Amino acid sequence: MDTAEQTPAPAKKTLLYCAVCSLPPEYCEFSASKNKCQAWLKESHPSVYQQLYSDNAITEKLAMTTLSEEKEAKEAAKMEKAVTKEEARMAREMEKKKTSKIVIRRVVRNKRKCVTSVFGLDIFGIDLKKTAKTFANHFACGGSVSKTPQGQDEIVVQGDFSEEIKDLILKLHPQVPEENIAMVEDEKKNKKMAA
User: Fold this and answer.
1) What is the pLDDT of residues 93-117, one digit of tens each?
2) What does residue 155 show for φ and ψ, rounded to 5 degrees?
3) Going edge to edge, which strands form the sheet with 114-119?
4) What residues form DSSP beta bridges with 103?
5) pLDDT on residue 15
6) Is 19:44 a contact under the CB 8 Å cutoff?
7) How far is it, in rounded angstroms, from Cα 139 to Cα 81?
8) What is the rounded CA–CA span in Å between residue 7 and residue 134?
9) How far apart are CA 105 and CA 184, in angstroms?
10) 186 membership: H or E segment, kind and range
11) Which of 5, 158, 184, 194 is the most buried (most CB within 10 A)?
12) SS3 category, 6
């Protein structure tokens, strides 16, 4: 019993994780964003960067490596391919964001009632549920996320708030360019149009 009381409690360890790839810095070299990880580590934690990527550390790693030169070349080519794939994916994503439109549509339900639907916010990485709640609180009305007939998500806000929603999107989400927001007005066709 006396020995149990004398042993100190284990100390907590603080681990460092990369802000770019979310791996420990020792494993960043295996991620597709290796160069960005190294730049982040050099800027944020220079001592850890020196420990991992200084000339001495690299020569020690090479001394411990048992890969043949052929395998090393294959691994380097594989890593280079992964990096180019990642960069191409990021470029495609940026291009998609540039060409994507956010559509704010005013739809007349009855003679006086209308709703405003907002479509395309998810492409810009905006959480639809939080944004719907923000719209509902800001305009003091009902707001929800629903599926369109095409199977995509849209935010539906009760009332005519087209211009106000556009201004609020631009204020809350500066990553959305103003030219990517389109305003559309739909009216439900009257059943007695043919008569």
Assistant:
1) 878 777 788 888 888 887 788 889 9
2) -100, 130
3) 143-147, 153-158, 114-119, 102-108, 181-187
4) 119, 182
5) 82
6) yes
7) 49
8) 53
9) 5
10) strand 181-187
11) 158
12) helix
Crossing angle for the helix pair 69-99 and 34-44, to the nearest 10 degrees? 90
Q: What is the pLDDT of residues 14-45, one digit of tens each?
A: 888 888 888 888 888 787 788 888 888 889 88
- In this model, does residue 140 exceed pLDDT 70? yes
Name all contacts of 28-36 with Cβ < 8 Å and 24+ positions apart.
Answer: 32/82, 32/83, 32/85, 32/86, 33/83, 33/86, 34/79, 34/83, 35/83
| pTM given for the model | 0.52
What does the buried/exposed string (b/e) look like for 44-62 if buried means 16 or more CB atoms within 10 Å of the residue's CB? eeeeebeebbeeeeeeeee
Place of tokens 């052929």: 70
What DSSP designation does 25 have? G
The answer to whether residue 191 scores a pLDDT higher than 70 is no
State the DSSP H helix or E strand holding residue 51, giving kind and residue range, or none if neither. Answer: helix 46-53
Question: Residue 36 has which token pair?
Answer: 């960005």
Question: At 32, which amino acid appears?
Answer: A
